[in-house]
Design brief:
elongated; 68% helix; 3 domains; mainly alpha
Length: 460
């Protein structure tokens, strides 16, 4: 009889191992499970401790912040009465308090700037010191406080109500110098896009206030021009289209009048010509709409004399452009001429170099729009007739001859245009003598001149 093999002979080695050492295995598994459980418990305890520590730190920070807010409120409460004072008698006291609060980061930047600007009404130097020590300034706030004088807006100073912001000229000059100083710092550190340059990032923002923005950056650009820092000027203009526009407005006519070599003179002529050409192209490009065009015309007319003929072609184009392109600009030009808001010398040069030859040329062109010619004839009536030339004054003699040729051309072209000239001349005399109430404060025709040699030109 065959003998059956033992049951354990059919068991695998792993099975026999488990059977023989099951006690050891049970102890091992239980030990590992205990270690895992212990590790998980310790990990969770560490997490709980971290959360508790973070919570305690957050509570501590919140308490410190609240304590600081309470302390800051108490400090501000004690000093607001001083900051609210006005007048030159409290300038030193306000300056000391404001400087301390600013350096201690007790005042918010916008609030610090507001108090500094108010201080600047009485002492621009103190204002500049406070602003220089204020971190994270809002430069839009400074731009809004920058007030143009009548010389900057119109190229002429008059004792008129519209010139009331002239008293803030020193404060505005201090703001412009602060911008120049901070641009020097940011340029030296390689952070060109930071600080005041943020005002030039949006092209439409510059188009909205081209004259103000140009004057705000004039001190910086004029300094670069005088020191012949061509690379820095190029870097500034490449920052944005708005920066290029500001650079063109300031630098197209920037001349220092110093004696230069013939080689440098050629370089400067090219420098001005490039910006003059770019500005003319930009003014009639798609990027500049009719309102933008009108504002650029205002800026160019106010610095027309300093341009030394650079703007003649632009104005001639403007005068003969279709109404859709130049209607707003021509209406504003008409108002500037009517209310004498142009320097007398600039007006004479504009008349002789732009207006008279444009009208005479339009009369000689049979295809020229009759309605536009009638408007030009009316505009010519707003400028003074050249005075009788004195002996040996060839320029005055030429101007008088050109004027007679223009009036003769209008007469020859038809009664309609001659009447437009005569009627507008008579009406302008009546309006200037007795302007409407809303215009009286803007009428420079009857206003007294201001005897002042203060900064008056974009390119001085």
């Amino acid at each position: 009889m065959t003998e059956t093999p033992a049951a354990h002979d059919n068991t695998s080695r792993l099975g026999r191992f488990i059977q023989n050492y099951h006690g050891f295995l049970s102890s091992f598994v239980i030990g590992v499970a205990g270690l895992v459980a212990t590790s998980i418990w310790q990990f969770r305890q560490a997490q709980n401790a971290e959360r508790q520590q973070a919570s305690e730190q957050a509570i501590a920070r919140t308490k410190a912040d609240n304590d600081w807010r309470i302390a800051r409120a108490e400090i501000l409460g004690k000093n607001l009465s001083v900051l609210s004072l006005q007048g030159p008698q409290s300038v030193d006291q306000r300056f000391g308090v404001l400087l301390s609060l600013t350096r201690g980061n007790i005042l918010d930047p916008e609030l610090a700037v507001s108090y500094a600007l108010e201080l600047g009404r009485d002492n621009p130097t103190y204002m500049a010191v406070v602003l220089a020590g204020t971190a994270n300034k809002n430069y839009t706030q400074l731009e809004q406080a920058f007030a143009l004088t009548c010389m900057q807006r119109f190229g002429v100073e008059k004792r008129a109500e519209v010139c009331k912001d002239d008293k803030l000229a020193d404060r505005s000059n201090a703001i412009a110098q602060l911008v120049a100083d901070e641009l020097d710092v940011s340029t030296a550190s390689g952070e060109v896009g930071k600080g005041p340059m943020g005002l030039l990032r949006e092209e439409h923002a510059v188009q909205a206030h081209p004259t103000k923005t140009a004057w705000l950056f004039e001190a910086y650009l004029q300094d670069l021009y005088e020191r012949r820092q061509w690379n820095e000027i190029e870097r500034f203009e490449k920052f944005s289209s708005g920066a290029r526009l500001v650079g063109a407005l300031v630098l197209a006519t920037a001349r220092t009048g110093e004696l230069v070599t013939s080689a440098e003179e050629d370089l400067l002529k090219k420098f001005h010509a490039e910006r003059r050409h770019w500005l003319a192209g930009y003014m009639f490009s798609r990027a500049c709409d009719s309102e933008c065009r009108a504002k650029l015309m205002q800026a160019m007319l106010s610095s027309y004399g300093e341009a030394q003929g650079d703007y003649d072609d632009v104005f001639k184009h403007l005068l003969t452009a279709p109404r859709g392109e130049a209607g707003i600009a021509l209406a504003q030009l008409h108002a500037r001429l009517l209310w004498c808001q142009v320097d007398a010398d600039d007006l004479a040069e504009f008349r002789d170099s732009v207006l008279v030859p444009t009208v005479t040329g339009a009369c000689a062109d049979p295809k020229f729009d009759a309605g536009l010619l009638e408007d030009l004839a009316a505009m010519a009536a707003l400028v003074p007739e050249p005075s009788a030339p004195s002996s040996g004054d060839s320029a005055a003699a030429s101007a008088a001859v050109a004027w007679k040729q223009m009036t003769a051309a209008l007469e020859k072209h038809g009664d309609r245009f001659q009447k437009a000239f005569a009627n507008r001349l008579a009406r302008a005399r009546r309006e200037r003598a007795n302007p409407p109430p809303t215009i009286k404060k803007q009428n420079f025709c009857n206003a007294e001149d201001v005897d002042s040699t203060a900064g008056s030109h974009l390119d001085e």
